[in-house]
Amino acid sequence: MLLQNKLLTISLCIFMPSLMTACQSGSPESTQSAKETSEIAVTDKVIASSSDSVKQGTAQAWTISTKSKNNHFDGILECQQAPSVGDFQNCQLQLSQSENPVDDASLAIDGGMKAHGHGLPTQPKMLAVEGQAGVYKIDGLKFSMPGAWTVGFLIKANGVNDQLIFDFIV
């Protein structure tokens, strides 16, 4: 796995000079995914854990799920296809608490690339999906480059404040 990551780093440095920070530092963290706390799936079939890269080029639905930091909420981030560079993503968050959908939550979204020290290139907004309990559309989400990304949600609902954090590879 380490040899594979080094080869990926070398390939990215040669073919994508915009990744010069990672190329100069030789940091394998810039091409590895983050924590092993989430599960990534394409439709109903798991294709990778968060320690692996997400398969690119699929037109199938893509999901990743996790528990909130203080275990108050469960979240499923679902996109019409695997996250990609450049285009606005068509994604939504399904939020539940004790297996019940959470409506009327106050949500804030933020994210970025820890290895590169920058945030999202846009300022996405959360919108409740009418007629779908506990479902919130993410409007304006975009990724500017391939690599390890974190997308987090600050949640205020039912008298509780908590955070959902999703780590994955674009």
Describe this entry's structure for a reader.
This protein is mainly beta and 170 residues long. It starts with a helix and ends with a strand. Strands 1, 2, 3, 4, 5, 6, 9 and 10 form an eight-stranded antiparallel sheet that branches. A four-stranded antiparallel sheet has the order 8-7-11-12, with no helix packed on it. The protein is globular. A hairpin with a 4-residue loop joins strand 7 (106-113) and strand 8. It has two domains: 1-32; 35-169, Macroglobulin (MG2) domain (Immunoglobulin-like), CATH 2.60.40. Helix content is 12%, strand content 41%.
Write a compact overview of the structure shown.
It holds the Pfam family YtkA. Helices cover about 10% and strands about 40% of the residues. It has helices at about 1-15, 20-25; strands at about 40, 45-50, 60-65, 75-80, 90-95, 100, 105-115, 120, 125-130, 135-140, 150-155, 160-170.
